[in-house]
Amino acid sequence: MTDQRMLTGDRPTGKLHLGHYVGSIANRVRLQHQYESWFIIADLHMLTTKNTRADIDQVSGNARQMVLDALAAGIEPERATFYLQSAIPEIGELNTLFQNLVTVARLERIPSLKDMARDADKETDMPYGLLGYPVLQAADILCVKANAVPVGKDNHAHIEVTREIARRFNHLYGETFPIPELITSEVSSLVGTDGQAKASKSLGNVIYLSDSAEEVRKKVSAMYTDPNRVSADVPGTVEGNPVFVYHDTFNDNPAEVAELKERYRAGTVGDVEVKDQLAAALNRFLDPIRQRRASFETQPGLVDQIIVEGTERTRREVQQVLAEVRKAMGLAGAYNQLRRKAERAQKKGATQPGEPTRLRPADAVAYQGSR
C-alpha cells in the first residue's frame, strides 16, 4: 500500500448523480490504486445550509445511499476508508486551531461561497459556518495528512485555502503537514438537464447513478435543447446544447455522436431521435453501476459496517495527528506546566487531593494587589 493519501467526499444530502461522477467520482475510482483512499461523509458541512432536525435525521440514510453509490461506481471497499465527520470531534478542534491562520477577507474572496449562499437562499444572511466552510474543509483534509484532493471546479478555491493554512502552520510551528495537491477532473462540472445551471440535487435537474432505465429515459426526454429549433428540419445548435454535452461526456460511440451532430446542424434529425440515442448511451453507462449496486444491496449491514469501521479507524488517525499539532504549537506544554506545579504544591501540603484550592492570606493580599 502506498504511503500517499487521497481525501475527498460529499455532504450526505441524498444520492449521487452524474454531476458528481464527472466532477470527482471518476477520479476517485481511477486514483484509488495510486493512493490510500479516505472518503468523508461531510455531515458537519451539510449544517451550513441544511440544519433542521429533519435534515439531521436523514444523515444516516443518506450516508448509506452515498456509500452504496460510491461502491457501485467502482470504489473497492477494501481500498477505501469511509467515515462520518461528526463522529470525530477532534476535527472540530483542528478547525478551531486553523481559524487563526486565515483572515476573514481571504475567505470573503472565495466566489463559490457566494454561490452556495445564493443556492441556500442565505445570500444576505450568510452563517458564520458557511464563511468558515473552507477552514473546516482544511481540517478534513489535513487531519489525515492527505497528499491529494480530487474535487470539482467549484472546490478549487477551497483547496487553495487548505494549502495556505498548511504552509502557514508549517512556517509557524515546524513541518507537520504535507501541502495537498489538487487533482482536477477532465470534465470539471456538468450542466443540469434544464440547461440553466450546473447539475444540482436542490434544483432537481440531475440524473442519479441509481436511476432506473425508465427514469433515465423520462428525464432525457424532458431535457432542455435548442429553443430556436421548432421542427426537425430546422438546423440546430450543437455547442452548449445540454443533450450534446451529455452525449460527448457519456456516449461510448463517438462515431454516432459525430453523425448526430452533423445531422442536427443540417436539420435532418429530430430532437426525439437525438434524445433516444442519448438515453440508450446513458443506460449503457449506468447498467454496470446498477448491477454493482444491486450486488452490494443484497448484503445486509455491509454499508453500515464499512462506515463504522472506517470512522473508528479515522478517529484513531486524527487523534495522533492532533497530538502532533498540539505538541508542535506548544499547547500540550502549557497545561503540563500548570499540572506539574499544582502537583508539587499538593506534595508540599498546600492543598489536599480532591479538595478545592484555597489561597493563604498572604497569597490573597498579593492576588488583590495584582488586579
How would you describe the overall organization of this protein?
By secondary structure, the protein is mainly alpha-helical. The protein is 55% helix and 7% strand. Helix 9 (133-142) packs across helix 10 (156-173) and helix 12 crosses helix 14 (271-297). Mean pLDDT is 89; it is low at 361-371.
Indicate the topology.
Layout: E1 5-10, H1 18-31, E2 36-41, H2 43-46, H3 53-57, H4 59-73, E3 80-84, H5 90-98, H6 104-108, H7 111-119, H8 128-131, H9 133-142, E4 148-151, H10 156-173, E5 181-184, H11 213-221, H12 242-250, H13 254-266, H14 271-297, H15 302-329, H16 331-347, H17 361-369
Parallel strand pairs: 1-2, 2-3, 4-5
Helix pairs in contact: 4-14, 5-9, 5-15, 9-10, 11-14, 12-14
Share of β-strand residues: 5-15%
How far from one another are the termini?
Answer: 59 Å
Give the total of domains.
2
Q: What structural class do you assign from the helix and strand content?
A: mainly alpha
One letter per element, helices H and strands E, the order comes to: EHEHHHEHHHHHEHEHHHHHHH
Instruction: Label the CATH architecture of the largest domain.
Output: 3-Layer(aba) Sandwich
Characteristics of this structure?
Rossmann fold, Tyrosyl-Transfer RNA Synthetase, 2 domains, 55% helix, three-stranded parallel sheet, mainly alpha, two-stranded parallel ribbon, 17 helices, 371 residues, single chain
Short précis:
It is found in: Cytoplasm. With 371 residues, the protein is mainly alpha-helical.
